[in-house]
Amino acid sequence: MDYKKDVIYQIYPKSFQSTTGKPTGDLRGVIKHIPYLKKLGIKMVWFNPFFTSPQKDNGYDIADFRAIDPIYGTMDDYMAMAKALRDNGIELMLDMVFNHTSTEHIWFQKALAGDKKYQDYYILRPGKPDGSLPTNWESKFGGPAWNKFGDTDLYYLCLYDKTQADLDWRNPDVRAELSDIVNFWMTKGVTGFRFDVINVIGKDEILVDAPPETESKKLYTDKPIVHTYLKELNQHSFGQDPEIVTVGEMSSTTIENCIEYTNPDNHELTMVFNFHHLKVDYENGQKWTKIPFDFSALKNILFDWQVDITAGNGWNALFWNCHDQPRALNRFGSPDKYRVESAKMLAAALHLLRGTPYIYMGEEIGMVDPDYSSLSQYDDIETLNAYKELTVSGLKETEVMDIIRTKSRDNARIPMPWDDSEFGSFSTVTPWLTNPKTKDINVKKELESGSIFKFYQQLIQLRHDLDVISDGDITPYSRDHDQVFAYIRRLGTDRLLVLNNFYEKETEIEIPKEFVDDSRILLANYDISKNDIKTSYTLKAYETLALYVSE
After folding, report:
1. Is-contact 295 483, C-beta < 8 A?
2. Judgement on whether residues 400 and 413 belong to the same structural domain of the protein
3. Which residues participate in catalysis according to the annotation?
4. Fewer CB within 10 A of the end CB, N or C, for the chain?
5. Is residue 1 in some structural domain?
6. Is residue 462 included in any domain, yes or no?
7. How far apart are CA 30 and CA 35, in angstroms?
């Protein structure tokens, strides 16, 4: 895979396709739809974890890194899927959850049984002399980040759910085990690895309380030793094959660190995910709130990361959607009136940037949030915890549900709708999450009469065809415009101007003379001709326009 020219597709296996009569997806379901993936034009699939897991956090609580969870199939099913993908020119990226394991993992169970070797695999600390927890750190999912370690006087660190025990990367035996896991999957045809929350692995030997008014995450995120750990992991596993592509999920990270993570000279990772641009609809930085997105902040974040990462010889992973985020169409577009136009605008705005684009399943057909009406329709542990905390805070039930409906991770996890039947042909029984919009938005309908899928195909092909997209520099254009996200890509004598109106309201923008006189329309989501391109141009609702000049 050429990570600069190819596009990666994310599959959440639990919601892609069921072939077993169960309410959840499986690996054989992926095989069924490989022709669809090939038709789209992607070259690699990132799979969320399908390893053995008690599923407390939908597979991110892993009990065996080398085994397939029975709900998804068997190792034979995996090998058949891997071969079928490769036969169709599609490579595999697996999700490595290396910050923590499930408390049902054999390592943790041996630790609980008193095995000192495996107790050293985890971060265990005694309580304070006054009987309080080892530190005042808070879990990412709400509540304290410590849980009692069996019947001992120790506590184990759990930055996420209490069933997800943090590993101690300071232990070389842990690092060796994790390198072996990567090598194991490399022998099974894996050529891509996504490392979950990998920049929180660098905890200090001595853990201290977060000072007042300071978030505890600042004490363990992006620590310098993370770079040391990644260099070692690279050297002992995936770095032995220069064709392997890696991406690190970086929590609350910085541009400076991500340059270091991804500069090829450092031999750490190929690219990084950061989430700063997806927090622009958080009030005072708090996820469980509901406010309109801050367009100026969105633009500035995207531009800062584009320009600075390029200057530092790093590489961005580009995405609007993933399994942990509400659908971008609901956040930044128009899920009802201008669903098609805004879906295309968001796609072009992202895919024509510098970096590797990721498509989250269903994005290419314009999927939107399900708009659940009842808490009983949700499954996500973070959502259920947030409901409790928001309710205790004194908000009204209607206010709480409005926030949940807007921010829940389950928005992205509803099953893929393959047609307009009751369950969208995802399953023959009621799915684990319902998708109430299969009648209007589904693959069959999109392929027969829609235009979003074709637009994604075009974007994927353009990245292959034009080096200015894959390799060109980027310069923000009209940065202060209050509705338009615009930029210019340059490589040699090739130039590309990309204009994106993020609002329903029409707006004027000036087009540089070179793009009026000498350009051709590379891409548009409205039916326009070259004669329409004037120095002063009116962008329609959610319009995207890409003008290309080549000398």
Report:
1. yes
2. no
3. 196, 249
4. C
5. no
6. no
7. 10
